[in-house]
Amino acid sequence: MVQSLISGQAYRWAVAVENVHGEGPKGTIISIIAADEPDSPTGLTAGTQTVNSLQFSWTPPTQDNGAAVTGYQIYWDQGAGQTGAGIVYVALAVEATTSYTATSLSSATGYRFRVAAINAVGTG
């Protein structure tokens, strides 16, 4: 296992077998770009609000860590201080989408929202 790779850095790899008679020919060289989950989006801001909906937007993460952001997951829960109660998420697959409207919300109910960026490695 190779460790301490730098996200976004390109690496080239080839494998060769070595025994008491020496090293054999190298296999096909492959190129990879080291990647990790993206950083979190910032600037989550509430926008238009109705009795049962809330539009909000965010700024994409400053670092995609070597793999382009492909979408976002929006998490929310309801209830004051009830972490984990009623968690819902919606996956958006359009990279350019940096806003969302949550609908079917209950009036006079508190909600907490969180947005996470997705890339080919995972969700940050």
**Termini Cα gap:** 23 Å
Q: Treating each run of at least 4 consecutive H or I residues as one helix, how many helices?
A: 0
Shape: rod-shaped
Q: Helicity level, as a percent range?
A: under 10%
Reading side by side through the largest sheet, how are the strands ordered? Answer: 5-6-9
Q: Which percent band covers the strand fraction?
A: 35-45%
Structural class: mainly beta
Low-confidence stretches: none
- How are helices and strands ordered from N to C? EEEEEEEEEE
Query: Can you tell me the CATH topology of one domain?
Result: Immunoglobulin-like
- From the alpha carbons, calculate the radius of gyration and give it in angstroms: 22 Å
Instruction: Kindly report the name of the CATH homologous superfamily of one domain.
Output: Immunoglobulins
CATH classification, class level of one domain: Mainly Beta
Major sheet summary line = 3 strands, antiparallel
The total count of strands amounts to: 10
Question: Averaged pLDDT, please?
Answer: 84
Which architecture name of one domain does CATH use?
A: Sandwich
Explain this structure.
This protein has 124 residues and is mainly beta. Helices cover 0% and strands 41% of the residues. The chain has a domain at 42-118: Immunoglobulins (Immunoglobulin-like, Sandwich). It has a three-stranded antiparallel β-sheet with strand order 5-6-9, with no helix packed on it. A three-stranded antiparallel β-sheet has the order 8-7-10, with no helix packed on it. It has a two-stranded antiparallel ribbon with strand order 1-4. It is rod-shaped, with a radius of gyration of 22 Å. The model has no long low-confidence stretch (mean pLDDT 84).
